[in-house]
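Quick start: read one record
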Amino acid sequence: MRLIFLGTPDFAVPTLERIIEAGHEVTAVYTQPDRPKGRGGALAAPPVKAAALRHGLAVAQPERIRRPEVAEALAAMKPDAMVVVGYGQIIPPGIIAIPPHGIINVHASLLPKYRGAAPLQWAVANGDTVTGVTTMRIDAGLDTGDILLQCETPIGPQETAVELGARLSVMGADLLVETLDGFDRGVIVPRKQDSSLATLAPILRKEDGCIDWRRSASDIYNRVRGFLPWPGQWTGFRGHLLRIWRVALAEGSFPGVPGALMVRGRRLFVACADGGGLELLELQLEGRKRVSSEAFLNGQRLEETELLGELSQ
């Protein structure tokens, strides 16, 4: 099948490579422009661009895909279909109408659940035990297009969004190739989404990373797993920012004020709102390296009434 691929992040790379492996003709790859990265601000290529160049594919990086000259260039390539995986721009109706098989999107949820920008992150943060990937034919709405195929998978009780994303990216790649094969054989039957069952997975914001210790221990635990790598989870310690990288649900009762720190042996715990607690396993104090809780305790002399949550203004 003659295809144009639109994608940007690491999550999209397995799909591009599986399409090539399956023998489809990728006439061009569209991705976001190179962006400044790191302290030095040097321009860095998106992961999809790097993958495309390794395979000798033509790459385009328009600032705005909705510009008329971009639509003209896409139409001139006469694709049978376009594939979109995490491209990062809204595709306008004029481009959606170009390929006869439409624009096929790989979405990291079992639609209509978790429409939006961060589906797998919210699935983990909300404590879901099952998720999956969906291929759909996009329309003008927010992840509202017809479902083509779906594949389900459990979410491990300790699995992070980073780990889940790595699995779903491979699942999505396989499902996309299966979808294209289904179009070739004429066996794909698109089905409408039931919008009454839809939930939203909005783009993550920096403030989503601030821990509210008045939440339950399980809720905070799931957010620590779900909001990796960004915005992460953080709190205040003696007026400074403290990043919480890894935690475990603690056994027993923790009747202290939410956010109260407790040392038991050489292990560090924090009380949560429901009388439960979390064991803090890996932390990073502002301006310092990420360390184990034991190393953290070696560098800090904790008081009996130490609380997490306050930041200096």
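The mean pLDDT is 96.
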